[in-house]
Design goal:
By secondary structure, this protein is an alpha/beta fold. Helix content is 44%, strand content 15%.
């Protein structure tokens, strides 16, 4: 079934008994039109339910007011907040946003970038996969600027967080609490995850300990609660189970907490858990989750501002928010014989 025909400027002009130029003036320069004539044209627009064709207007102007965003997983609240910040900045200048989710799939990301290029968007903001660089060249050839969010790509402006510091903060905290067997759940293809692992390793070395003895790094393919649960289970069954887990993000932490609960292990007395992002849910859990906070909305806003105004690249600083899931000093703990954590 064909869609109904959209009312045009010509239809409005005929109904209002004015010229097409007069309708155009009402839309773009209403101060040039006599009040009575303007009222007649506006009444015709309302009767016809006329809405201006933004695509045609942008084509005539030669400048788009639409921006594209390609994020790793739009269902993850981290990216939802990032998008909120982008939209807030675009709203300041009357721009709209097309949102695409790559699911960290290079082919899906390529399709999204191709679509945005075909739409002639003003610019693209992207949280890249591990093979994004070559695909962005297509947008560059079309003259479409790109801003990278939460990662670095040579030749492209970016808005980032110091993830090296984030990883170091999390593990320094766990070391101070007396943990000497720490599991990190990471994702090899994500640049921020790699940087967090590097920061964690340095924190252990700076404490005079051997990272190989302290750290167990577990790589997952998907940043989900189920992946977190499946990743931690075999490690807990190992000969030297961890007393602390530093997870890729808060969503993965939920799976870790689920597995610990299933085994009857207490958090934080038996196993401490630290997440990343500090999503709204972190403070609302039965055992509130310690997390490394990212200023998600602010990062999105800064990325859109960089795209629109060419402001300098901005690097944000993470903050460790300590809550009950890790707030337990093992160095001063009492006899744990009946705690359910024997041998840990």
């Amino acid at each position: 079934m064909a869609p109904p025909r959209r009312p045009s400027v010509k239809d409005v002009a005929e109904l209002a008994d004015v010229s097409i130029g007069t309708v155009s003036n009402v839309l773009n320069r209403p101060d040039l039109v006599a009040p009575a004539t303007r009222a007649r044209v506006e009444a015709a627009m309302e009767r016809l339910r006329y809405h201006r064709n933004a695509s045609a207007r942008q084509l005539r102007a030669g400048v788009s007011s639409t921006v594209g965003a390609v994020v790793s997983n739009v269902s993850n609240p981290f990216y939802t907040e990032l998008i909120r910040g982008i939209e807030d900045r675009l709203a300041d200048v009357g721009h709209s946003l097309i949102i695409c989710s790559s699911d960290n799939d290079p082919e899906r990301e390529a399709r999204a970038l191709r679509l945005l290029g075909e739409q002639g968007v003003r610019g693209v903001l992207i949280t890249p996969t591990d093979a994004t660089d070559s695909r962005l060249a297509v947008l560059s050839e079309l003259g479409i600027p790109v801003v990278v969010l939460d990662a670095h790509l040579d030749g492209y402006p970016s808005v980032t967080l110091d993830h090296f510091r984030g990883g170091r903060l999390a593990v320094e905290h766990l070391l101070e609490q007396g943990h000497r067997r720490i599991a990190i759940i990471a994702r090899k293809i994500l640049q921020p995850s790699q940087e967090r692992c590097a920061g964690a390793t340095e924190a252990i070395a700076a404490a005079g300990l051997d990272p190989a003895e302290v750290l167990t790094i577990i790589h997952i393919d998907e940043a989900s609660a189920n992946s977190g649960q499946q990743a931690i289970a075999p490690v807990l069954d190992g000969p030297k189970p961890p007393t602390a887990v530093f997870a890729l993000n808060d969503i993965v932490s939920l799976g870790v907490l689920r597995e610990l609960r299933r085994r009857g292990l207490r958090v934080p007395e038996d196993v401490a858990v630290v997440g990343y992002d500090d999503l709204f849910l972190a403070a609302e859990l039965m055992v509130p989750l310690t997390s490394v906070r990212q200023p998600m909305r602010e990062m999105g806003w800064a990325g859109a501002d960089l795209l629109l105004a060419g402001s300098p690249r901005q690097a944000f600083t993470p903050e460790l928010i300590v809550r009950a899931s890790s707030d337990f000093d093992r160095t001063n703990s009492v006899d744990r014989t009946n705690s359910g954590a024997q041998g840990r």
